[in-house]
Design a protein that fits this description.
Two copies of one chain form a homodimer. By secondary structure, chain A is an alpha+beta fold. Chain A has helices at residues 9-23, 35-41, 46-58, 112-118, 167-175, 193-199, and strands spanning 62-65, 69-72, 79-85, 98-109, 125-135, 143-149, 181-190, 206-215, 221-230, 236-244. The structure holds a DNA duplex.
Amino acid sequence: MPSEKTLPRHTQIADRLRADIQSGVYGLGARLPIEAELATLFDTSRPTLRQALATLSAEGLIVRRPRTGSVVVATHVPVVLSHAVTSVNELLDYPRDTHRKVTATRYVKADDALAQQLHCAAGKEWFQITTLRYAGKSTVPLCWTDTYVLPQYAGVTKHRRHTLMPVCEQIVEMFDEVIEQADIEIFVMRIPKRMAAALKAPADSPAMGVMRTYTGSDGEVFQTTVSVHPEERYRYRFELKREARAAGRKR
Amino acid sequence: MPSEKTLPRHTQIADRLRADIQSGVYGLGARLPIEAELATLFDTSRPTLRQALATLSAEGLIVRRPRTGSVVVATHVPVVLSHAVTSVNELLDYPRDTHRKVTATRYVKADDALAQQLHCAAGKEWFQITTLRYAGKSTVPLCWTDTYVLPQYAGVTKHRRHTLMPVCEQIVEMFDEVIEQADIEIFVMRIPKRMAAALKAPADSPAMGVMRTYTGSDGEVFQTTVSVHPEERYRYRFELKREARAAGRKR
DNA sequence: ACTGCGCATTTGTATTGACAATTAAGGCGG
DNA sequence: CCGCCTTAATTGTCAATACAAATGCGCAGT
C-alpha cells in the first residue's frame, strides 16, 4: 500500500464511507452519523469530514439536509453510457459542407394522417418548411425534410443563416426558446410518390426515416422534423461513452 | 433585489466571477488573480473564496493548478442534450418480454467482406453467435442478429440468462470486462437471401440494419453485433434531455 | 547553447472556532 | 383533538492560520 498513505485524508474518508455504503454498513435509506460524530470517529476536523461528505453527495450516494442528517440514497455510483451533444448539429452528423434548399413553405392544419405521424392532436396548426439537403456541389439530395414549427415561429425562415443552421437552434436564438428535450425516432419507410422526383430516387424504394421532436421549456413540442433519406445515402451513427457520475479523479 | 442579500458569500462571489468571465473581463485562456488577491478583492477569507472557485471549477469554466493559477477554459457553462443509459438494454428498447433463440454458433475468420462490414482487420478471429429475437409468443421474429465476440469470450453462451440479457453485459459479468464505449450505426439495407426464410420476410425487401460495437477498457473492440430488422417490425427511438453541467442548484 | 537542479510561487490540505439557517419534533393553547 | 409556535438538533457558512505539495522559472554548470 504505497499510494494509500499519500492520499488526502478527505479522500481516504470518502473512500471508506463509500465502501461502507456499498458493503451495507449503511444501507439504502439509512442515516449516517452526524458530522461531529463522524469527525470524532475518523479523528479529524469537521471541515475535512465535510469535504468527504461533499464528495459522496456529488456522486449522488447521499443527500444532506439540515436537521435530517445525511441519508443514503444509492449504494453504488451509477456508471452510465452517455451520448451528449452541445449542438443539434451533432445529432445528425452530416458532412461539414451540406446545405439546405427551401422548396416550399405553408401553414397547415394537421389532418388525421399528419397528426398520427407527428404524434400531435388533430387540428393542430403548424408552419411547414419543406427543404432538400445537398452535400457540397452534388445535385443529388441527401434527404427531403419537412419541418413543422409553431405558427408564431414562422419568422424563422428570415434568419440570416437559415439554410446552414438547424432550424431549432434558430428558434432558440430568435425567440429565446429553450430545448428541454429532443426525441429521435428512426424507421424504415418507402419513398412517397410526391418526393420521388425531387429526391431522384424511385417511388416505393427503401429509405430511412428520421423524426425529431423538440420540446420547449413549457413542456410543449415547438418543432417536429421528418427527414427521408433514400437508401445508401445516409447512415445514422453515434457513440456512447462510459462516464461515472461526478467526473472527478485527476488526470 | 430582495433575495440578493441573503445569498451566501461564496455564491455571490462565484456569480460575480462567472459574470466577469462571460462578459470578457477574464477572457478565454486568461488567468484569474491568485487566491490571496481575490480574497482581498472581495474582502473575504481564502476558504470562502476557494469555495467560489471550486464552484466554477465544477462547472468547467476554469481549471486550477498549483503554480499556474486559475485559467479560464470556457466562457459559458455548457448546456448539453444528453442521452444516458445505465443498461445496454435501454439502448435498443425492445418490449419487455422479448427473448432470443440461438440458431447457430461458430468460429470465423473475417474475410474481406466481413472485415469491411465490422470495420475490423481482415483475418481477425471471432466467435459468431447467430440468434433470432421474438416478441412474446409471436412466431414472427423481430430481427436476425449476428453477434461477434472475441474467441476467449466464447463461453458466454453458457451464461445462465444467456437468452435474456444483452451479450455484452454477460461478458462484463463473466469476464470482468468493462464497456468503455459503444458505437451505434443505423442504416437501411435489404434482407439477405440467407436470412429471408428465418425472418419470414421476402429477400431484398427493405430492412433496418443496426450495428453496435463495444470497446473495452484496453481500447480494443471486444464485441460487434449486427441486427437486421425487417420493415415495420421495429423503430429505433431515444430521447435526449437538457442538462447543465454541475447539476446543482437546490431543489 | 543546453541541461539539470534549486527555489519561490501558487494551490492543496488540514485545524480550530464561532455563528447562521433550516427544519423536524414536541409542547402549548384554542 | 388539532394546529400553531417554540425549541433544539443538524447542517450551512465564514474566518484566521499553518503547513504540504506541485511546478514553472531562472540560474548555474558543463
